[in-house]
Design brief:
- The structure holds 2 protein chains of 2 kinds.
- By secondary structure, chain A is mainly α.
- Chain A has 2 domains: 2-180, no CATH class; 187-274 and 346-468, no CATH class.
- Chain A is built from 20 helices and no strands.
- In chain A, helix 6 (151-159) packs across helix 7 and helix 8 (187-220) packs parallel to helix 20 (435-452).
- Chain B is 46% helix and 8% strand.
- Chain B is built from 15 helices and 5 strands.
- The N and C termini of chain B lie far apart (64 Å).
- In chain B, strands 2-1-3-4-5 form a 5-stranded parallel sheet, sandwiched between helices.
- The longest helix of chain B has 21 residues, at 4-24.
- Chain B has one domain: Rossmann fold (3-Layer(aba) Sandwich).
- The chains are: A mainly alpha, B alpha/beta.
- The interface between A and B is medium-sized, with 20 and 22 residues.
């Protein structure tokens, strides 16, 4: 209880420290969804006593449609549902509209010079908590979870600071158990949490930081750095984004673990995927599963014609692109198309499939490297038209990293690949280590981060690539 | 028993951590030797009658060995590259913990800088200072916006990227460094004549900042409290330009506070400085020749005006200083 109060105070404090307006935005989302859920729940419970048997405890029942059928048996309940539906729609619309408006305004300001003189800053964590509050209200409406009575418990779920910048997007049904369970602080959890945090820091500072220097040079001048350089940037960005984003998530998961709060994994060795479809099951799992449950399935999912299913997939990916920002609509569309028609690229050789998938993903990351859609497309095109591969190789040491730093980068990427391949084994082994073994890992990782990390003057430690979404 | 192994592991990593902090910190032995100046003071006998404080205009221009040879004055220069006035104040405060000189000579050039200027200069002056309240205060007063206190506390945070720049010097001077100065005076024998006189650029404001006055007051007060004679000087550097407005303010301050003030720029002829031969960087600093002339000139003033002891007649001290002088003469050959 005490730890929850401290977490809430700390989380609110962090939001306020970035500007009081951040707290106002998140409070608005929290209050609207909390109140809406309570109204829906109250209406349900009145009707439910006499007419409807919605079993909240039946959490295994994932099929909301079955619940709908149960509810549909009764006119009164239908009337009730109708009322609830409008509350649901309005609550989602209001919260989603804020997020949509901010995404459009940010794009308008950056690309079309809207509202010059006024700087639009996205409220902290809005992309993440908006999806969380929507998932909550939808789950309450569908009877998957009961509306939370204690406002502060719900507020802690929304405002919980570790996932402030980069998620993961969590569901209340999972977080409620984790946040409010007893006996959270254990020495074992602290060791494991610290190891996880340091592993995340290693990925972020040793790998992503180094790759960032190379990409920074390449993306600084498209007139010089195209063709082979562009391809190199795309491949490197795959490494950078993964190391930075998954490293950030490791820190969030590790920090929560120390408090005894288990968060779901957000990555499952994504670059070992054999298709784009598989990639999206293993990359940013929290977002992918949110899109699946709250966009793709409500659109009809695969319970419809093949054509409609393909359209549903593409719409879902375009929305995913929009969530990342207006710049990424085409990126989302292309991913959608590759998920739908990706089968044609699949061979019977696993390594070839992995390489093809990695190449495709890397090429599509162009939209994140150059952000301007036209430039990104030009850079993709230049791979096939500018054959400056020899020049790029001879100029490699002039891109910002000397040979010692390149050696550090190569070794650390190899370690990351080995870890991703043997993840389960390594984690089990570390978990079984005695205290001295764990301390040795903590010491080694801490020294690696401190010595080989790219940080310090001129390097902003709080900046995670994925936080801007 | 179950805590023995974890304790050993923790100790091993603490030792590795300390070792890496030492190894990766610059040693300032062959390159940027100015970075070791603050540290050199700690190894000295603390019995100086004169302490110089200030920026490069003191450590390049005043040679304590000349002061000793000429008048038997034992002195030390606690100066650093672009040492700002608050740094001079805390350096003096630290010095007074070790010794109480009769005279403190403060070069007023740093009055022109009201804010922290450069991280690199901060590092040169502060990094090797011993930990004390003065060090905490000097860091807080000196940090530029991009700096963090923690990186002074843990040098590894600042110097970790030197892992690929380590040389044999880093291992050789890991535990013990050598002195590159002679009581804080850095010898430079090069000659680069003054070619152009500086043009007097108009400034928006010629007034020294409140911050600088505050620290100058603190220096004055500190000397008063300790019964030390504070002497203000302006070294005869041609660059950067010393405005008349600056001069007036210092003269006024010295008068109001009953302090002696010597502007050596106005005594260039008398001292015999020849800017075509006595400067190593075209007028910013004096070279060995120039510094020797200036030190000889100033040693007379110090001796006559402030009744300093002639330590050439002190058996014990003269033994140490004669040895120093020998090494110094060897170095200036």
């Amino acid at each position: 209880m005490l730890i929850n109060i401290l977490l809430l105070i700390l989380s609110i404090g962090i939001y306020v420290s970035f500007g009081i307006s951040n707290l106002i935005y998140i409070l608005f989302s929290t209050v609207t969804t909390y109140a809406a859920a309570r109204i829906i729940s109250n209406k349900r419970s009145i009707e439910g006593c006499t007419n409807c048997n919605i079993n909240y405890a039946d959490k295994e029942n994932k099929n909301a449609e079955i619940i709908e059928e149960v509810k549909g048996e009764n006119y009164k309940n239908n009337q009730n549902k109708k009322n609830g539906k409008w509350i649901l729609i309005i609550t989602i619309a209001v919260n989603a509209c804020i997020l949509i408006a901010i995404k459009i305004l940010l794009y308008g300001q950056a690309k079309l010079n809207w509202l010059s003189g006024i700087q639009i800053i996205a409220p902290l964590g809005i992309s993440y908590y908006t999806l969380q509050v929507i998932s909550y209200i939808v789950d309450v409406y569908k009877g998957k979870i009961e509306a939370e009575k204690n406002f502060f418990k719900y507020f802690l779920y929304v405002v919980y600071f570790p996932y402030l910048f980069i998620g993961p997007i969590t569901r209340y049904e999972n977080m409620k158990e984790e946040l409010f369970k007893k006996e959270k602080i254990k020495l074992e959890n602290i060791y494991n949490g610290v190891i996880r945090i340091l592993w995340g820091l290693t990925k972020k500072f040793v790998i992503a930081g180094r790759v960032g220097i190379l990409i920074g040079t390449i993306s600084s001048d498209v007139s010089i750095y195209k063709g082979a350089y562009a391809l190199l940037a795309m491949l490197l960005y795959s490494v950078q984004l993964y190391a930075d984003f998954s490293g950030g998530i490791d820190i969030v998961i590790g920090g929560s673990k120390m408090l005894g709060i288990n968060l779901k994994e957000n990555f499952d060795s994504p670059y070992l995927s054999q298709s784009i479809k598989e990639f999206w099951r293993r990359w940013h799992i929290a977002l992918s599963s949110w899109l699946r449950d709250y966009i793709y399935i409500p659109l009809g999912g695969n319970r419809c014609s093949k054509i409609r299913n393909k359209i549903n997939v593409i719409i879902t990916f375009v929305i995913s692109g929009f969530w990342h920002g207006m710049n990424y609509l085409l990126w989302g569309l292309l991913h959608g198309l590759l998920v739908v028609y990706g089968k044609i690229l699949k061979t019977k050789w696993k390594p070839i499939n992995i390489i093809i998938t990695f190449l495709l993903i890397s090429i599509l990351w162009s939209f994140f490297i150059w952000t301007d859609t036209l430039t990104s497309l030009q850079m993709i095109g230049s791979i096939f038209t500018n054959f400056n591969y020899v020049e790029m190789l001879s100029n490699f040491l002039n891109l910002g990293l000397n040979i010692a730093n390149i050696v550090v980068l190569i070794i650390s990427v190899i370690v990351l690949i080995i870890f991703d391949i043997k993840k389960e084994k390594i984690i089990t082994k570390i978990k079984n280590y005695k205290i001295e073994g764990k301390l040795a890992i903590i010491g080694t990782l801490a020294i690696i981060v401190l010595v080989f990390g790219i940080y310090g003057i001129g390097f902003n430690v709080s900046e995670f690539i994925y936080s801007k979404f | 028993m179950k805590y023995i192994k974890p304790t050993i592991v923790i100790i091993i990593f603490i030792l590795i951590f300390i070792f890496l902090n030492k190894l990766l910190s610059p040693k300032y032995m062959t390159d940027l030797v100015e970075g070791n100046m603050t540290y050199e003071y700690y190894g000295e006998e603390k019995n100086h009658e004169v302490i110089f404080i200030g920026d490069c205009e003191v450590y390049a221009n005043f040679s304590p060995m000349v002061l000793y040879e000429q008048e038997g004055i034992i002195s030390y220069v606690r100066g650093n590259s672009q040492q700002l006035i608050w740094q001079s104040y805390y350096m003096l405060k630290e010095t007074l913990k070790y010794e109480t000189p009769k005279v403190v000579v403060f070069n007023v050039n740093s009055m022109r800088y009201s804010e922290p200027v450069s991280e690199a200069y901060n590092r040169l002056a502060i990094d090797k200072m011993k930990w004390s309240k003065e060090k905490v205060d000097i860091i807080k007063a000196s940090m530029t916006e991009e700096e963090s206190f923690l990186s002074y506390l843990i040098p590894l945070l600042r110097y970790h990227s030197r892992f690929d720049k380590l040389t044999s010097e880093d291992f050789k001077y890991l535990l013990k460094t050598k002195n590159n100065t002679y009581n804080g005076f850095l010898i430079n024998k090069n000659v680069k004549p003054l070619e152009n006189l500086p043009t007097k650029r108009r400034l928006a404001n010629y007034n020294f900042s409140e911050n600088c006055y505050e620290y100058l007051n603190k220096i004055t007060e500190l000397c008063k409290q300790n019964n030390i004679k504070l002497v203000l000087i302006k070294a005869p550097s041609v660059y950067p330009y010393w405005y008349d407005e600056y001069e007036e303010q210092i003269q006024k301050y010295a008068k109001e506070n009953n302090l002696d003030y010597y502007n050596f720029k106005e005594k260039v002829q008398e001292i015999g400085i020849d800017y075509s031969a006595d400067t190593y960087d075209g007028g910013l600093h004096l070279n060995l020749e120039g510094a020797t002339k200036l030190s000889k000139y100033f040693s007379k003033i110090l001796k006559e005006k402030y009744r300093l002891t002639d330590y050439r007649e002190d058996e014990e001290i003269s033994k140490i200083y004669n040895e120093k002088l020998e090494r110094y003469k060897e170095a200036i050959k």
